C-alpha cells in the first residue's frame, strides 16, 4: 500500500513538470518565429558592416605623421582610433588600445619603428597586420590612408603580398605618393610628363615592375589620389612631382571600381604638410565616411 501511494503521488509531479517544459519550449519557438519574421521583413532594419581604416606613414615617418589626420576624423565624428600597431624592426607587431565592436569605423594607426625600411619589407609587415585584423576581428574589408612612401608600400602589398583570402581593400587614399620617382633621388621637376594616354614618358624600374603586376590589384577598390602643387613652378610638393604622383592612374584607373584625383595647391601643399592640411582632411573624411 505504501509503495502504491508513493507511485500515485509521484506521477502528478512528473506530468506537471513535463507540461511546463513543453509549454515553455513551444512559447519560445513561437517567440523566435515571431521575432525572426519581424527582423527579416522589416526593411527599415539595416546592419552596417565594421570597416576599419588603416593609416600608414611614409619614409622616416613617426606617430605625428598620421596623428593629425586621425584626430580630424575623430573630431568630425566619422571614426575613432581603436589600435596602434607598432612594428618592431624584426617584424613583430605590438598592439596598443581596445577595439570594441560598437565602433563601426575603427582606425588602426601603423608605426614602423624601422621607418626607413625597404618597400617590400614594409609591405610584408603591413600584410602581417591585415592578416591579424582578419583573424582577430573577422574583418572582410578595410580602407587605407597613406602618406608619401606609404602609398607605394600599399601598392606593393596589393600586388605582391595580398592573397585571394585577404580582406578586400575597399577604399585607398594615397597622399603625396611617389609612384614614379622622388626628387633628389630619381626624379627632377619638369623633366617628365604624362602622354595623352596617361602613360608617364619616363619610368623608373619600380614603376615598370608595378605595371607588370598591375592586374593583381583588387578591382573592387575605390581610389582618391591626393597630391600637392606648391605653384612655385616646380609642379611638385617639393619632394614628389605631380607626374610621379599621378602616374598611379596609368596603372590602375581602368582596373579599379573608381579612381579620382585631387590636387592641393599653394604653400600648404608642401610634402611634409599634406598630412596636416585641413583641405586634405575634409577630402579624406568625405571620401571614406561621407561626412
Description:
This protein is an alpha/beta fold. The protein has one domain: 3-Layer(aba) Sandwich (Rossmann fold), CATH 3.40.50.1820. The chain is built from eight helices and eight strands. The protein has helices at 2-41, 64-75, 119-137, 150-161, 205-213, 242-246, 248-252, 278-289; strands spanning 53-56, 80-87, 93-97, 106-112, 141-147, 168-175, 222-229, 258-265. Strands 3-2-4-1-5-6-7-8 form an eight-stranded mixed beta sheet, with helices on both faces. Strand 5 (141-147), helix 4 (150-161) and strand 6 (168-175) form a beta-alpha-beta unit. Helix 3 packs across helix 4. The longest helix is centred in the N-terminal third of the chain and has 40 residues, at 2-41. The protein is globular and about 50 Å long. The chain starts with a helix and ends with a helix. Residues 1-19 and 21-43 have low confidence and may be disordered.
What is the gist of this entry?
The protein has 291 residues and is an alpha/beta fold. It has 8 helices and 8 strands, in the order αβαβββαβαβαβααβα.
What brief labels describe this structure?
291 residues, alpha/beta, Rossmann fold, eight-stranded mixed sheet, 8 strands, 39% helix, disordered N terminus
Amino acid at each position: 500500500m505504501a509503495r502504491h501511494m508513493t507511485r500515485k503521488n509521484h506521477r502528478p509531479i512528473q506530468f506537471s513538470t513535463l507540461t511546463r517544459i513543453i509549454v515553455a519550449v513551444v512559447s519560445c519557438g513561437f517567440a523566435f518565429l515571431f521575432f525572426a519574421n519581424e527582423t527579416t521583413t522589416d526593411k527599415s532594419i539595416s546592419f552596417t558592416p565594421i570597416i576599419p581604416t588603416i593609416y600608414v606613414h611614409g619614409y622616416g615617418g613617426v606617430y605625428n605623421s598620421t596623428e593629425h589626420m586621425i584626430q580630424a576624423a575623430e573630431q568630425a565624428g566619422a571614426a575613432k582610433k581603436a589600435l596602434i600597431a607598432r612594428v618592431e624592426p624584426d617584424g613583430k607587431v605590438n598592439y596598443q588600445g581596445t577595439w570594441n565592436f560598437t565602433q563601426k569605423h575603427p582606425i588602426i594607426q601603423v608605426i614602423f619603428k624601422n621607418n626607413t625600411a625597404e618597400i617590400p619589407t614594409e609591405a610584408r609587415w603591413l600584410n602581417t597586420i591585415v592578416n591579424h585584423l582578419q583573424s582577430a576581428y573577422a574583418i572582410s574589408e578595410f580602407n587605407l590612408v597613406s602618406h608619401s612612401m606609404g602609398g607605394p608600400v600599399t601598392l606593393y602589398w596589393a600586388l605582391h603580398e595580398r592573397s585571394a583570402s585577404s580582406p578586400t581593400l575597399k577604399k585607398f587614399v594615397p597622399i603625396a605618393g611617389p609612384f614614379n620617382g622622388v626628387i633628389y633621388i630619381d626624379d627632377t621637376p619638369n623633366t617628365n610628363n604624362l602622354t595623352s594616354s596617361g602613360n608617364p614618358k619616363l619610368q623608373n624600374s619600380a614603376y615598370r615592375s608595378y605595371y607588370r603586376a598591375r592586374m593583381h590589384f583588387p578591382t573592387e577598390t575605390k581610389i582618391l589620389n591626393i597630391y600637392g602643387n606648391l605653384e612655385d613652378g616646380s609642379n611638385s610638393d617639393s619632394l614628389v612631382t605631380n607626374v610621379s604622383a599621378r602616374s598611379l592612374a596609368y596603372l590602375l584607373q581602368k582596373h579599379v571600381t573608381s579612381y579620382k584625383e585631387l590636387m592641393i595647391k599653394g604653400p600648404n601643399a608642401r610634402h611634409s604638410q599634406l598630412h596636416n592640411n585641413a583641405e586634405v582632411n575634409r577630402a579624406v573624411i568625405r571620401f571614406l565616411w561621407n561626412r
